[in-house]
Design brief:
This protein has 244 residues and is α/β, with parallel strands linked by helices. It folds into 2 domains: 148 residues, SPOUT methyltransferase, trefoil knot domain (Alpha/beta knot, 3-Layer(aba) Sandwich), CATH 3.40.1280; 62 residues, Trp Operon Repressor, Chain A (Orthogonal Bundle), CATH 1.10.1270.20. The protein starts with a strand and ends with a helix. The structure holds S-adenosylmethionine (SAM). S-adenosylmethionine binds next to β5.
C-alpha cells in the first residue's frame, strides 16, 4: 500500500514513520510512504504557499495552486483525504476501509487551514482524528498511516489485530506478562492454568466487563452472541454483589 502525503513540514515525519513497526514495514516493501512538499512546485521567487484570508482575520491560509499542482504531478488514483477538524471522525472502521485501498493521498493543512477550493475540488474525503484542533494535519496523517498500516497483511504477526480493542466493537481484555507476581500483585490464576478454552472464556468476559464499565456506548452497539449475553448476566450479578 502506498501513502502520498502532502505537507509543508516533511521533516516532522522523520521518526514516527521510520522507527519500529512502520520502519520495518517499509523496509519489507509492505508499505510505501512518499512525502511531497507543495512548496517544491511553486515557481515564484519566495516560494509562497500561504496568504492572508479574504475578509480579514487572524492567521494565514494555504493557497490552492501549490497543493493542486503537487498532487496532480504524482496522483495515480485512490482517495484524496484532507485532514481537517471538520471531517468525519477517524475510527477503526475507517482504518479498515482505508487498508483496503492500494493508494491513499493525505493532504496536511497548516496555519488557519486550506483554501476552501481544495476541500471542494481536490479532496474526495475529509477526516478528523477527533474533536480538537491541531496546529497542522501532520500528526493526524501519522495517526492514520500508523493505524492503517498495522492492518495490512504481514505488517504484524498473524492474529495480533484480531482480538484487540475496537476490532469487534469491544475493548480488549487485560494483558499480563512475566513475572507471575510483582510487588505482591499476582497475575489472575486463570491465565496461568494452561486451560485454553477457560482462558478464552475469561478473556471474553473481561473484555465485556471492561467495555461495560468504560464504554457502555460501544457495548450498546456491539454484536453479542448468546454466550456473551450469559457472560454479561454473570458480570451484572457479580457487580450487584460488589456494589454496597
Ligand atoms: C489550526 S488547524 C485549522 C483549523 C480551522 N481553522 C478550523 O477552525 O476548522 C490547521 C490544520 O490542522 C489540521 N487539523 C487540525 N485539527 C485536526 C483534527 N482534529 N483532525 C485532523 N486534522 C486536523 C488540518 O489539516 C488543518 O487544516
Amino acid at each position: 500500500m502506498r501513502f502520498d502525503i502532502f505537507t509543508l513540514f516533511p521533516e516532522m515525519f522523520q521518526g514516527p514513520v521510520t522507527a519500529s513497526i512502520l520502519g520495518r514495514a517499509q523496509a519489507q516493501g509492505l508499505v510505501e510512504i512518499a512525502l511531497h512538499n507543495p512548496r517544491d512546485v511553486t515557481t515564484d521567487r519566495h516560494h509562497v504557499v500561504d496568504d492572508y484570508p479574504y475578509g480579514g482575520g487572524a492567521g494565514m491560509v494555504m493557497k490552492p495552486e501549490p497543493l493542486f499542482n503537487s498532487v496532480e504531478a504524482v496522483y495515480q488514483g485512490g482517495p484524496i483525504i484532507l485532514l481537517s477538524p471538520q471531517g468525519r471522525v477517524f475510527t477503526q472502521a475507517v482504518a479498515r476501509e482505508l487498508a483496503a485501498e492500494p493508494r491513499v493521498t493525505l493532504l496536511c493543512g497548516h496555519y488557519e487551514g486550506v483554501d476552501e477550493r481544495v476541500r471542494e475540488h481536490l479532496a474526495t474525503d475529509e477526516i478528523s482524528i477527533g474533536d480538537f484542533v491541531l496546529t497542522g494535519g501532520e500528526l493526524a496523517a501519522m495517526v492514520i498511516v500508523d493505524a492503517v498500516s498495522r492492518l495490512l497483511p504481514g505488517v504484524l504477526a498473524a492474529g495480533s489485530t484480531e482480538e484487540e480493542s475496537h476490532t469487534a466493537g469491544l475493548l480488549e481484555y487485560p494483558q499480563y506478562t512475566r513475572p507471575p507476581e510483582f510487588r505482591g500483585w499476582r497475575v489472575p490464576e486463570m491465565l496461568l492454568s494452561g486451560h485454553h478454552a477457560a482462558i478464552a472464556r475469561w478473556r471474553r468476559k473481561e473484555a465485556l466487563r471492561r467495555t461495560r464499565v468504560r464504554r457502555p456506548d460501544l457495548l450498546a452497539k456491539a454484536e453479542l452472541s448468546v454466550s456473551d449475553r450469559k457472560l454479561l448476566a454473570e458480570i451484572e450479578a457479580e457487580d450487584e454483589v460488589h456494589t454496597p
